[in-house]
Task: inverse folding
């Protein structure tokens, strides 16, 4: 667990995976750039962040506003400046128009995907399963939507993913301080975009602490035979022998030297450096004439706002409901005979699978002392569960930094389910399943409409809960069937088919993520639940 991934020695195989990753990134970039200026007007919170980006470009961040401590004409003062500076960069290069506002988000979104394959490798996945994690992340409508709107969460997500990746590299590549400070810098950029970005630093600290414990524990038994060491690791839950990709790693030497000095380095990298970058994000604020007293008052006002925001919003939702895709957020919608809309929604098949995988990670750890799913699951818990404590108005798109790790977790769960085996026709089966989901998704929409729309209308709200119960029971029955010993030999192929279904279903949501024209009938079939409207 958290060991350095083994290098791919075969150059043909290595270059093949590099080419596959590049192809996924290229297609994802093209999808995010497709009609990026549609709609041309500002949608949702672009009315704050795009306008503030223009205020920064114009230099309207001085002391002449209604309050001296506020950044001039900026209206999104409750958040730090890094994300707004990125949006301002797009406006500076491409003008005060939709393409200029949104292009930085595209770059951040593609940057997130570029981190997923190496992230999967460093979280214990073999090359094919790390590639699968990338495909799952690329097939998440939330990531696509957030990459096409000039708001802050995609920047928080990019710096969060990069921070965790660099922390993993630090513990897996000889504990070199340069990687530690690079992780701290990425975390500082996340905090400098939104205060919630501080969770990236907590996740990085968790990775470092877990790696320290595991590697120090392994160092206490240097005289064990390789077979005994593998058995001991399995008994400790560090990876079952039946999962070759998780064994496809080599241990990094535990750090040496003074513990006090290393703790001091951690404090410098994960606290002092981020604090310095946070201050740096306010460079233009200070250059415009603001004083330290103004800055302190601004931070106080930000704290009051972020702790006490209790505004009523149609698409607000409670954090525990996010991971099951209960209440997505419509950023834009118009039309009568033809509809045009942009929605921030997770891939339901992927997110529901991630929910099951989180439960599986806990069960495996507690019942079987197998921790192979815990690295990805632990990061998800750190980034997601703290939101349960908030009482302020919150939205599903706060899951943007969590979603890439959900893709890695699901890939790891499928790998575990398949015993780490990719059958000869596995990728072909995944492709066929993806095609089937992309073409034949409407029956699922029709069934959902009958179960969650028609029944409650005819028999009352109680029947709606009956529909939910039926859905949950069907999911439990499916999991029980997949885990049946009779299907053990078919698990590798089944795992790839399930992955293909998760990937292909994104095609159904693409029109309402890109703002493409759809018919009212299409809209009815894609809105599976009343809470999605």
Result:
């Amino acid at each position: 667990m958290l060991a350095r991934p083994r290098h791919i020695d075969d150059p043909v195989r290595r270059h093949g995976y590099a080419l596959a990753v590049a192809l996924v990134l290229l297609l994802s970039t093209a999808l995010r750039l497709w009609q990026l200026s549609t709609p041309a007007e500002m949608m949702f919170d672009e009315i704050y962040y795009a306008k503030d980006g223009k205020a920064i470009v114009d230099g309207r961040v001085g002391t002449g506003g209604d309050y001296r401590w506020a950044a001039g004409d900026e209206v999104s003062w409750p958040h730090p400046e890094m994300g707004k500076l990125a949006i301002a960069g797009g406006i500076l290069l491409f003008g005060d128009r939709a393409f200029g506002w949104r292009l930085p988000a595209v770059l951040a979104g593609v940057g997130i995907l570029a981190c997923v394959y190496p992230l999967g490798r460093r979280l214990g996945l073999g090359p094919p399963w790390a590639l699968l994690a990338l495909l799952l992340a690329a097939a998440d409508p939330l990531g696509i939507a957030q990459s096409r709107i000039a708001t802050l969460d995609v920047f928080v997500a990019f710096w969060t993913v990069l921070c965790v990746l660099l922390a993993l590299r630090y513990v897996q590549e000889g504990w070199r301080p340069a990687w530690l400070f690079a992780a701290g810098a990425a975390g500082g950029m996340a905090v400098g975009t939104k205060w919630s970005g501080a969770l990236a630093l907590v996740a990085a600290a968790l990775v470092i602490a877990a790696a320290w414990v595991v590697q120090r524990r392994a160092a206490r038994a240097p005289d064990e035979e390789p077979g005994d060491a593998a058995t001991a690791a399995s008994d400790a839950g560090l990876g079952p022998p039946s999962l070759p990709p998780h064994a496809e790693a080599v241990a990094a030497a535990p750090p040496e030297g003074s513990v006090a000095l290393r703790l001091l380095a951690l404090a410098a990298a994960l606290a002092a450096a981020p604090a310095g970058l946070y201050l740096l994000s306010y460079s233009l604020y200070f250059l415009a004439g603001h004083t330290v007293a103004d800055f302190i008052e601004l931070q106080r006002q930000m704290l009051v706002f972020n702790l006490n925001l209790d505004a009523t919003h149609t698409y607000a939702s409670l954090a525990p409901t996010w991971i099951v895709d209960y209440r997505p957020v419509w950023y834009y919608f118009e039309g009568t005979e033809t509809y045009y809309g942009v929605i921030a929604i997770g891939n339901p098949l992927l997110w529901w699978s991630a929910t099951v995988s989180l439960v599986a990670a806990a069960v495996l750890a507690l019942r079987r002392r197998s921790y192979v799913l815990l690295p990805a699951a632990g990061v998800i818990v750190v980034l997601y569960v703290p939101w349960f404590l908030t009482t302020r108005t919150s939205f599903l798109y706060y899951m943007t930094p969590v979603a890439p790790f959900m893709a890695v977790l699901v890939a790891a769960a499928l790998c575990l389910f398949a015993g780490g085996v990719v059958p000869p026709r596995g990728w072909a089966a995944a492709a066929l399943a993806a095609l089937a989901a992309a073409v034949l998704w409407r029956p699922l929409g029709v069934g959902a409409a009958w179960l969650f729309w028609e029944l409650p209308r005819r028999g009352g709200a109680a029947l709606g809960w009956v529909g939910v119960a039926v859905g949950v029971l069907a999911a439990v029955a499916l999991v029980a069937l997949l885990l049946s010993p009779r299907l053990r030999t078919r698990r590798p192929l089944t795992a790839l088919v399930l992955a293909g279904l998760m990937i292909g279903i994104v095609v159904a949501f693409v029109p309402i993520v890109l703002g493409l024209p759809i018919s009212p009938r299409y809209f009815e079939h894609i809105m599976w639940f009343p809470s999605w409207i």
Observations:
- The chain has one domain: 4-13+21-299+319-532.
- Confidence is low (pLDDT under 50) at residues 224-247.
